[in-house]
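Reviewer comment 2.1 asked that we show a complete input and output for one of the modelled complexes. We chose the manganese (II) ion case, as it is the one discussed in the main text.
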Amino acid sequence: MAEESRDYAAKRSFKQTPEPPPEVAGDVDPGTAPPGKTFVIHQHHARRLHFDLRLEMFNGGTPVLVSWAVPKNLPIEKGVKALAVHVEDHPFEYRGFSGSIPAGNYGAGEVRIFDSGRYELTEQAKGKLTFRLRGSRLKGVWHLIQTRGGKDWLALLSDWQGEPPEPVPTGPPMVPGATSEAFDDPEWAFEPRLEGQRALAVCGYRSTELLSETSQEVEVSLMHTMHERLVALSAVVDGVISGSRGEERFVAVDLLYLDGRSVGAEPYYRRRELLEEAVVPGGIMGTVTSVPRTGKAVLQAAQDLGLPGVVAKKLDSIYRPGPSEDWLEIRG
Ligand code: MN
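Response of the prediction step:
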């Protein structure tokens, strides 16, 4: 059966998936193949979320991506062992792949690039690799050790070489400092105002904590997995918990902190770009619609949906906790 094959091409129909076809057949031995220079880690929202670590190595003269599926991603703390399942080599072209594998195909779901960059193999033996990653998120040295000679390997952090994180902002969230009539202006963006509980999602590498407007912890079922919908080492997302119990969703409206750095001093339009890159929409998490310029049309659309109004946000404004006139409330 194709599903049990280790062969990249046998698992896929290249007429149906946007993934690239292979250039060479078969898999190399990671213990002996000549190493290349680049790596990528895909964040793959398949039936189960997992991460795919891919190291460039050579199959004859052709670069390929030697790959491990790492359910919990590479550890960023010492002493943590992460399972890494050695899977089929992927074509080198796959390192730039990001997008959606259509339903019904092998690995169907959203694929994002969690990290990429240069790597250096500092130890290469049968069943054991030590490598340094110089990614934009992951910076450090890891070991990969094969267990019992099979497809299961263990990943361990040897040395973290990234900058220490900045303190995590904990609120209160920014709120409109005044009300206004509906207006159109190219220097502003307009979002429907959502009904629900405003909260900050403080997302770590492997956990999420929700804080209310008064920085009290909020206990909401399902929401503790929100970090899984983010492409990030860490993040603080401002949003609204909407919907009824059991069908709750978190709709993101802003981003305060990303990968250990505060982004509150970035202008709103830049924070919005970072937010859209970070959130993988689906399941319990979405992002509010944000439309530049046309406040009157957004108010009309919000009213058609039965929403209570619109929030106008000045495109070049920084994120300031509490009331600010850079955000305006527009009621119908
Ligand atoms: Mn995968």
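The two ends are 59 Å apart (CA to CA). We note this here for comparison with the apo prediction described in Section 3.2.
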